[in-house]
């Protein structure tokens, strides 16, 4: 696809079926200038998903990475996929797919802009400026015309504005994040607990006491300190979590090997020990530059009461406060996280359906869902766990 600017230079849209065709240096330089960059949008992360066999055409994620160029300079880019299912997305459109099927229409393939298996909000349409972002949004619409629909998940405000101007519908959601109070930061985890309502504080203290009484202690390993043996144990735990839900893990062991080799500074592993035996692991992603942490994966070799909450929330929160991190994102869903000090945070996604009548029906649905979500957020805010 080509278009001309007012100055006469040609803008070229390129679509690549392998993220290795793009330059990590150019991509990551563009990412660094966005409003809400995350490590998951680094090209190394996206390439590792592909080369490890985790997100490929064979697993229902056929890459169609879209980039905007002018005279050899990268002006915009985004990770796009032709999807043959809706697994691994965390913004649910199963009902839309079922409605298509009932009417004898094909919902798949659809065009998806997202980080596979990673429900972390952040910039999705990486662009040098608003004009480049607008051209990228229009290019996605044009590319999606050969599919049932376009979906851009968990983008930032600039993404939302560009996609709305391109005719996309907005969908609201909610996650639960902890943010350090910049005016009165909690100096340690005990101080954070002291700010919670009495019943919430007592419950957390009781849960941690049960873990201690089970003989559990934790070690925290960061970056290169995580050995291949540690990664192997974590992956065993990760597999067991999926097995408990009668499903298969999305990510391969090779993906984590690539993360250890290419992005080691972005990982923190909590290992739970009983005596000299490891019994559980919780993997946290880090953005050291922005002092943000992200709860990602967990698993245990046996059931130990309350261990999940300690490994996935209390240990990471204590670590974040001790290390001067300002934000901990708990991942998708989970109203129970509020009782553990994580507060509701709005998220947004963009959608466009090629079928005019279905697009109108979804627009009506999203208007009603959005009003309900606003009410839900108001209700959640009224039940803050803090004093």
TrEMBL record:
Keywords: Acyltransferase, Transferase. GO terms for molecular function: acyltransferase activity. The keyword Transferase applies. The keyword Calcium does not apply. Its EC number is 2.3.1.-. SUPFAM superfamilies: Acyl-CoA N-acyltransferases (Nat) (SSF55729). It is an enzyme of class 2 (transferase). This is GNAT family N-acetyltransferase.
């Amino acid at each position: 696809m080509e278009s001309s600017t007012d100055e006469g230079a040609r803008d070229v849209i390129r679509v690549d079926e392998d993220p290795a065709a793009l330059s990590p240096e150019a991509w990551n330089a563009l990412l660094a200038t966005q409003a809400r960059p995350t490590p998951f949008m680094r090209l190394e992360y996206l390439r590792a998903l592909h080369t490890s066999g985790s997100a490929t055409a064979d697993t229902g994620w056929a890459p169609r990475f879209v980039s905007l160029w002018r005279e050899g300079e990268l002006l915009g880019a985004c990770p796009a996929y032709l999807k043959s299912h809706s697994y691994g997305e965390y913004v649910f459109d199963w009902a839309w797919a079922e409605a298509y099927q009932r009417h004898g229409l094909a919902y798949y393939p659809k065009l998806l802009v997202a980080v596979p298996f990673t429900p972390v909000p952040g910039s999705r349409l990486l662009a040098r400026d608003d004009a480049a972002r607008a051209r990228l949004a229009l290019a996605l619409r044009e590319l999606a015309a050969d599919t049932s629909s376009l979906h851009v998940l968990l983008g930032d405000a600039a993404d939302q504005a560009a996609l709305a101007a391109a005719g996309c519908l907005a969908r609201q959601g909610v996650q639960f994040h902890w943010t350090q109070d910049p005016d009165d930061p909690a100096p340690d985890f005990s101080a954070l607990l002291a700010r919670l309502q009495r019943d919430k504080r007592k419950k957390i203290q009781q849960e941690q006491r049960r873990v201690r009484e089970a003989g559990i202690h934790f070690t925290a390993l960061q970056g290169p300190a995580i050995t291949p043996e540690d990664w192997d144990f974590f992956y065993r735990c990760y597999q067991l979590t999926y097995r408990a839900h009668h499903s298969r893990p999305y990510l391969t062991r090779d993906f984590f090997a690539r993360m250890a080799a290419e992005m080691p500074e972005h990982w923190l592993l909590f290992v739970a020990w009983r005596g000299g035996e490891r019994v559980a692991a919780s993997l946290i992603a880090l953005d050291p530059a922005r002092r943000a942490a992200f709860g990602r994966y967990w698993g245990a070799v046996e059931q130990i009461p309350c261990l999940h909450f300690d490994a996935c929330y209390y240990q990471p929160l204590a670590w974040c406060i001790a290390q001067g991190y300002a934000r901990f994102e708990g991942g998708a869903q989970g109203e129970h996280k509020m009782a553990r000090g994580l507060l509701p945070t709005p998220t947004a996604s963009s959608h466009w359906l090629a079928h005019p009548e279905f697009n109108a029906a979804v627009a009506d649905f999203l208007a009603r869902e959005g009003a309900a979500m606003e009410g839900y957020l108001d209700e959640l805010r009224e039940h803050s766990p803090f004093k």
